[in-house]
Write a sequence for this structure.
């Protein structure tokens, strides 16, 4: 296994944890007719906003590592 593959595994585990940490209860209840408090608009604050932004960052890192894992071995085979 290469360093890129190990890094992608680590990032994927962190990404799964971040996705599972996100609270998905109250903001979706208003969409499906539940008794949500604030209507359709919901603003993330505090730790929830941090987890949301970290999830986006780790998705970008995961996709970048996936592309590097796909491209780099092919470049090395050319030389």
């Amino acid at each position: 296994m290469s360093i890129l593959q190990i890094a992608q595994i680590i990032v994927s585990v962190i990404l799964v944890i971040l996705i599972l940490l996100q609270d998905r209860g109250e903001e979706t209840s208003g969409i499906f007719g539940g008794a949500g408090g604030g209507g359709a608009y919901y603003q993330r604050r505090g730790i929830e906003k941090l987890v949301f932004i970290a999830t986006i960052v780790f998705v970008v890192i995961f996709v970048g590592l996936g592309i590097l894992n796909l491209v780099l071995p092919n470049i090395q085979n050319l030389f």
About this structure: The two ends are 21 Å apart (CA to CA).
